[in-house]
Amino acid sequence: MPATAASQKNIKTILKQLENEGYNGISVDCVIFGFDEDELKVLLIKSDLKNFEDRWSLLGDLIDSNETLDGAAYRVLKERTGLEDVYLEQVKSFGEISRHPAARVITVAYCSLVNVQHYQLKKLDNELHWHNVRHIKEMAFDHKQILDACYLWLQKRIQEHPLGFSLLPKKFSLRELQNLYEAILGVRLDRRNFRKKFFSMALLEDTGEYEADVPHRPGKLYKFNYEKYQQKERKKWFGIDF
Amino acid sequence: MPATAASQKNIKTILKQLENEGYNGISVDCVIFGFDEDELKVLLIKSDLKNFEDRWSLLGDLIDSNETLDGAAYRVLKERTGLEDVYLEQVKSFGEISRHPAARVITVAYCSLVNVQHYQLKKLDNELHWHNVRHIKEMAFDHKQILDACYLWLQKRIQEHPLGFSLLPKKFSLRELQNLYEAILGVRLDRRNFRKKFFSMALLEDTGEYEADVPHRPGKLYKFNYEKYQQKERKKWFGIDF
DNA sequence: TTATAATTGTGTAAAATTTACACATTGCAT
DNA sequence: ATGCAATGTGTAAATTTTACACAATTATAA
Question: Chain A within 8 Å of B102 (Cβ-Cβ)?
């Protein structure tokens, strides 16, 4: 809580007043997903609050008055991981009254997808760790709830939009791609049908290169053709089903 | 802007400080959809700001420090329309820095679906009007952008979840239902296939009643069976396509 | 060098779903 | 009673999804 020329009491009164007028703390929290060892991981930090010692929390910060929501999320991402130009999308806002023990803080949750390889090169911080998403039991604040929401969002989103490639190297094998989908969706997929599906979309480009250092026949490496995806005429939707 | 015991200057300083610390104005804005005369409508109010004279705006308000986001949206909805127990869901937050001329205000957009008939009975306010969604050109603040986002959200959502019934009377004909989908999606649908689809979902219950006051053969009236929908086992998803 | 193990790469037939399409029926209005 | 305007219904073709097996390639071990 801030203190300026005015006395603490005054501040408190004003703060109360401001809160009544709609002034509350606003933060962003980033759910940063990575894919490593065929598992979906999420980047967490040890909570800095006493209330939540030994608990892990998402990477977040209060929003500055001169930055947009997206801007704040990018900033957090860059400050904490050194990464830029990563996939980032707003998912949902959370505003339970006592979700933060120190004050009323409303948070806007973002989902981010990063290539774990890139990350490793940039920054080292031993308070930051990748966690297997499926092993996380409890977290600080309402962060488990936020994580769950973002994970569900991702599961749905990845089937309708080409996000997944942000989690892979530029050049990847179809096996890697399938492992990614299987890890995120938590299902096993038929290899032949999976390949057929992606080839029929005609958005994968054959690089002519092959996997290296694998103890078996190497697979072809592909890259995703974003230009082609952009130009592709969006299918007119109609698929009522629930 | 509020004023208490402290001088205006102090307030301003403190406010600035607070903003730097993440204290901003937060509001909710409700995009209230209705369905009438086979058209999708949205409920708007004349803007109360001089900057936006003659412009229409969404129904919204600052969030009180002791209410949740959902709570604030429900409150706005009730205060402005007298309606309770309506469909309401959070869609997205908007935080461009100068989106509000008076101050930095971040807003959480909600989508609400109401039965226009119910509404008419409750409240009369001639600053409030239903507008055909497709005729709205410009609005106050960034509200057109918010409306567009909510409309797109609705188009997608209505195909995957049974929201649409909130826009209809409890008992409705299949023609009404189809008109609703056609109006929202902006497409024409095959009548036989539409019926087949809904019957195959087995969630419509025949009431045994028929339309009245129609200048032609009356259609059967159905109601949506929410219990059955809840119990229905969610289909395992897998439909990669983009 | 040869055999083995592991994984890539490929096609087809059956099933399920989606699409296109036409006519008899019903009730109201004249 | 007749005409009008919409409801209600089925089937065949096309498309999409699913299930499933074997030959080719490379690294490794014998």
Answer: no
